[in-house]
Amino acid sequence: MPLGPTDALIINPQTGEKSHDVKAPAQKSLHVAVIMDGNGRWAKAKNQIRTMGHKAGVDALKRTITAAVDLGVTHMTVFAFSTENWRRPEAEVNDLMGLLRAFIKSDLERLRREGVCVRIVGQEEGLPADIVGMVNEAHEKTKDNSRFYLQVALNYGAQADIIEAVKRIATEVRAGDLNPDDITPETFGGYLSTHDLPPLDLLIRTSGEHRLSNFLLWEAAYAEFVFQDILWPDYGYEPLKAALDIFARRDRRFGAVEAGHVKPAF
Ligand code: FPP
User: Fold this and answer.
1) What residues bind Mg(2+), as annotated (predicted)?
2) What is the Cα–Cα distance from 178 to 126, expressed in whole angstroms?
């Protein structure tokens, strides 16, 4: 799986002249985001309750983390619970939170040993207090790991994240701490909850649905999208490899005419 070019295309902003900087470091990160969709349909097809689909979804997540490490992915951001998911029946919401608790209890120590850094992306406000404590502890225990970065998007909505960023920027401008002329895509990205993540390379959605569903709207600006007709509980090594193979064949131009290697900084 090619992680990226070893030479970067440099465009002189004054002259527009292009050159290749052969000394530029190879792209080190491979950031994949996943909308893990189809748990409910998987359960229905098996005449089971939806919770069984989510339970099987956790197993699929565990398989996919292992596969991602093996396949050279460095960062994986998964959509576990959106700000809109609170609209689901209370019992299903409770079951999802329960599965997250169980996942942390059963797998955190293994993930820590395997070099995985676990982080949460999303709003703490509104989450059960014990979940906030558990996810913060999970990050604290794994924060020095750098083999693989797992971001679990929990109580996450991209629009809310963008609005929070705008509010913070507006506050800084009003206080005189920030000049509006200094706001660029790069600086704006620094206000998002994903600010310390590398650019998103690939966004996968399972179950045949073709929507972003308020996931990583800003970050997906130059990401490649792969939609797969597989229900999330059936996911694992082979489907992820298939998605990465499709990604490797894509011609990423980042807005340029030729297949250059200018990566946006967000
Ligand atoms: C979408 O399937 C899936 C979700 C809303 C939750 C994803 C959660 C998991 C994979 C398990 C929990 C994760 C952790 C980290 C413990 P859906 O319910 O919308 O399926 P449907 O579209 O077929 O009804």
Assistant:
1) 37, 224
2) 30
